[in-house]
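Explain this record to help learners:
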Amino acid sequence: MINQHIGSVIRKGTGLNTELEERTKSGKTIWVNLAISPRYDRNGKLMGLMGIGENITERKLMQVQLNHAQRMESVGQMAAGIAHEINTPLQYIGDNARFLKDSFFDLLSLFKEYIWIVENNNGLFPQEKLEEIANKKKEKEFDYLLEEIPEAIDQSLEGIERVNKIVLALKEFSHPGADEKRPSDINRAINTTLNVSRNEWKYIAEVDTNLDMELPLVPCYLNDFNQVMLNLIINAVHAIKEKKETDHTKSETIRIATKLRGEWVEISISDTGVGIPENIQDKIFDPFFTTKEVGMGTGQGLAIVLAIVVKKHAGKINFESKVGIGTTFKIQLPLLQKCITVAE
């Protein structure tokens, strides 16, 4: 593979700096950071190449471990929320099931009384028996049950649908990523991530989505894209939480939009949080940089976002932020496969 890169530099006449996977003579797989530059004489004739290769295997292994730690941090943040999201509909499904059970026995007792009359009246309707049934009907709140039972069934079905939606979203979100880019529905991925992270934001902010329904499928590593969206949504929630510590009155919003821009698909995530101070804006993508208290974050969230978007997808990411107003991140992913030799 190194020979291919050397040939590419000779043909194009431009240098390169990339990471690639190689095998040693012993068959061991290593990662190499390769930098190659052409050298020319005064007449512009190629004299040779200068190259530097660095074994970065340990660094790559550490990066994988850090990425895993960041994912586990995200999963840990969501676990309690997902449990709560599932528990809420299960709770009223349980309440309704108990109500339906009690109602069934109340109606069954009335039904038995009517059956007795039908089978034993011999054309006569004893007044005492009729009064007994009327009193029992009133005691069992028959009219109330007729009104409430259908509603309890509908609520239970809604609860089951809600649990089903959460489970499907979680299954889709956590599905192992493919080894290569695949055409993916970005809008669906965004909605899946919002469903999985709902408990993180539903008490903090309104979420407003403006998703282009005509968006084409985008070649991407879907699992990694989900991670990008989750990181940015969680960041937006934290920014709004921090703002609400001093202002509880104003309603805050997270806005997510998608649109087609030529050969790129743009995803924007905006929040009305505290904003990013200008003096640290050039550091937010740095690994380990965080403004959170010790133990509250790995400082890898935005570093991973940058690596996934730019290195893994050959995409672009930028942001605008004003203190006290909020922050907007814009991601652009190419619709066409990019020939890159950079690995995450």
